[in-house]
Amino acid sequence: MRKINWHKVAEDIAELNWQSNNMAIVEAGGKKITVARFKEQLFVFAYKCPHASGVLANGFMDALGNVVCPLHRYRFNMQNGRNTSGEGYYLKTYHIEQKEDGIYIGIESSGLFG
Ligand code: FES
């Protein structure tokens, strides 16, 4: 069974290090993770592009809410990681929750020791 480990990353959303493109990089569970703000919603996904490791926070979001990688412009749905420009990659996504005492990022562990 999958277990989600929650990591507190900030007291408040405003505390994240937002860039002008509405993305921020945080560290949770020893991983760098991208947080993106799109139409009042938060999305969390891998730091690097699954294609050739472009840093996604250096890219941008399109009008539909896909993140666009700065290197080769592949697009990914920020909610489910689908490679919407059709190259067949998959972007790892994570969970985020705004709780009373702060912002938490949830990372699934799959194996026994994960
Ligand atoms: S590294 Fe992201 S599209 Fe190539």
Commentary on this structure:
The protein has 114 residues and is an all-beta fold. The protein has a domain at 17-94: Rieske [2Fe-2S] iron-sulphur domain (Rieske Iron-sulfur Protein). The protein contains no helices and nine strands. It has strands at 3-10, 23-28, 31-38, 41-46, 60-61, 66-68, 75-77, 93-99, 102-109. The protein has a six-stranded antiparallel sheet, with no helix packed on it. A hairpin with a 2-residue loop joins strand 2 and strand 3 (31-38). It is globular. The relative contact order is 0.25. The model has no long low-confidence stretch (mean pLDDT 95). Residues 49, 51-54, 69, 71-72, 74 line the site of FE2/S2 (inorganic) cluster.
Task: Set out the fold topology.
Elements: E1 3-10, E2 23-28, E3 31-38, E4 41-46, E5 60-61, E6 66-68, E7 75-77, E8 93-99, E9 102-109
Antiparallel strand pairs: 1-9, 2-3, 3-4, 4-8, 5-6, 6-7, 8-9
Bound molecules: FE2/S2 (inorganic) cluster.
FE2/S2 (inorganic) cluster binds next to loops.
Supply the key terms.
114 residues; mainly beta; Rieske Iron-sulfur Protein; six-stranded antiparallel sheet; three-stranded antiparallel sheet; 0% helix; globular; binds FE2/S2 (inorganic) cluster
CATH level-four homologous superfamily name of the domain at 17-94: Rieske [2Fe-2S] iron-sulphur domain
Structural class: mainly beta
Strand content: 35-45%
Averaged pLDDT: 95
- Helical content (DSSP H or I, runs of 4+): under 10%
Give the CA-based shape. globular
As laid out across the biggest beta sheet, the strand order is 1-9-8-4-3-2
The N- and C-terminal alpha carbons lie at a distance of: 11 Å
Q: Assign the CATH topology of the domain at 17-94.
A: Rieske Iron-sulfur Protein
The first-level CATH class of the domain at 17-94 is given as Mainly Beta
Number of strands: 9
For the largest beta-sheet, the strand count, sense and barrel status come to: 6 strands, antiparallel
Radius of gyration: 14 Å
Low-confidence stretches: none
